[in-house]
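Tokens in:
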């Protein structure tokens, strides 16, 4: 379980670098279904690994001018404390139900993945009005929306590791007039902040396999650097439809017992 993890990290890094999505949504079920991690350990490992490689990707997108930093920070104001609360809820579930928490977390994760798959389908076929690349100033409405989105998505991420790309990327597309590269870059920049908060919380709760995290990062860091160079240069629709299908089927597999 070494080079296989690095290869998985490379493929996920490429996808996230190009689209800003698919990190936690795909990595967590892969760790569970392919590498036989229990759900809580898979979630914690995925989140800390995501913090590492998305920080690299966010820095690269920042250099490329693809980040709306103020919008990302308003998202983080809501998402960071909410994600820590989500991790705390996982700890309460473990204390209350013991080993049964894995089954409970699996159901929660499955539902989140099904919703994420539906969100990917929606994001693939939604057509918004054309936008230009001029600076966009946030209004009070934008700040409130960003904070509320952060709270909602951050709590789900703390529970399941899903949301840093799927949910936030969809909301950025629907609610803010940003170009596609800036949606990807802003999403990654915010995700890096959020995942460090949630990842350190999971690390302190002993929910992280550090050896697996290192092997995943060995592949995902070069993957996200390469993928960031290809942002919106490649056709995304086929990739998004395939990804949405995988998310939906993985969610059904985890949510439905037996």
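Residues out:
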């Amino acid at each position: 379980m070494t080079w296989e993890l690095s290869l998985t990290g490379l493929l996920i890094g490429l996808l996230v670098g190009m689209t800003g999505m698919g990190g936690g949504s795909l990595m967590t079920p892969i760790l569970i279904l392919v590498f036989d991690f229990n759900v809580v350990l898979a979630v914690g490992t995925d989140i800390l690994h995501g913090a590492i490689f998305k920080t690299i990707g966010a820095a690269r997108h920042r250099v490329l001018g693809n980040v709306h930093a103020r919008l990302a920070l308003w998202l983080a104001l809501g998402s960071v404390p909410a994600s820590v609360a989500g991790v705390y809820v996982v700890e309460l579930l473990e204390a209350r139900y013991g080993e049964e928490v894995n089954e409970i977390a699996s159901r929660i994760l499955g539902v989140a993945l099904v919703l994420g798959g539906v969100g990917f389908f929606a994001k693939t076929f939604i057509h918004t009005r054309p936008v230009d690349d001029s600076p966009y100033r946030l209004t009070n409405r934008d700040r409130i929306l960003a904070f509320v989105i952060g709270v909602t998505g951050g709590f789900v991420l703390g529970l399941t590791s899903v949301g840093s790309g799927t949910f936030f990327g969809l909301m950025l597309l629907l609610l803010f007039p940003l170009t596609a590269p800036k949606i990807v870059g802003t999403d990654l920049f915010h995700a890096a902040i959020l995942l460090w908060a949630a990842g350190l919380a999971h690390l302190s709760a002993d929910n992280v396999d550090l050896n697996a995290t290192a092997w995943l990062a060995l592949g995902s860091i070069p993957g996200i650097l390469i993928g960031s160079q290809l942002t919106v240069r490649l056709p995304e629709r086929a990739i998004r439809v395939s990804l949405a299908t995988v998310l939906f089927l993985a969610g059904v597999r985890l949510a439905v017992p037996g």
